[in-house]
Amino acid sequence: MSRVTTPPDIRIATERLLLRSVATADADAIVAGIGDFEVSRMLARVPHPYRHSDALTFIAATRAARGEDIALTVLADGVVIGGLGLTGVRTAREFGYWFAKPAWGKGYATEAGRAFLAWLFADAGVDIVRSGVFHDNPASLNVQRKLGFETIGTHMVRCLARGHDVEHIDTLLTRDRHAALGART
Question: Is residue 2 one of the residues assigned to a domain?
């Protein structure tokens, strides 16, 4: 296993987006995006309703994790439209993301995911990334397939927003697969 290194503040630019470390100033935008039940119902660890205090707790915990968790906000034209990150950088390496409903269907998740995964494999020294989606989120599964993730199984996961367990499709992407797919991912 390679040594994983993450700087305290991350900035990754794409053609249309800026991915940067989450900041306290992002709390209102995070609440507005994740506060929509159509968004939170697709995320395992997000309660509904999602409050300002939840966002502040999330931001503080991520900052305190000192590189063990990475949380980035995704901005288009200077406006926060979503977020993505990696929990357990040195252990589980679980990739997750969310986008506010007005940002759906515009290719932002794929664009942001490509840039973040390229950075993880090339600059942070990550070898393997796990992810997944709830079974009733085909759009997100399609994003993961575009990024090169392969389905490796299913299991039940508690969804806080829904208040019950939901079937989860588990996915995986390795550094070697990412490199082999090259520009297609």
Answer: no
Residue 184 lies in a domain: no
Overall residue count recorded for the chain in this entry: 185
Answer yes or no: pTM beyond 0.90: yes
Q: What is the pLDDT along the chain (185 residues), one digit of tens a residue?
A: 444 555 668 999 999 999 999 999 999 999 999 999 999 999 999 999 999 999 999 999 988 877 778 999 999 999 999 999 998 867 778 999 999 999 999 999 999 999 999 999 988 888 999 999 999 999 999 999 999 999 999 999 999 999 999 999 999 999 999 999 984 54
Coil vs helix vs strand at 61: helix
Tokens describing residue 1: 């296993």
Q: Measure the CA–CA gap between 69 and 96, rounded to whole angstroms.
A: 11
Give a yes or no: residue 6 inside a domain. no
Range of the domain at 82: 11-179
CA angle 99/100/106 to nearest 5° reads: 65
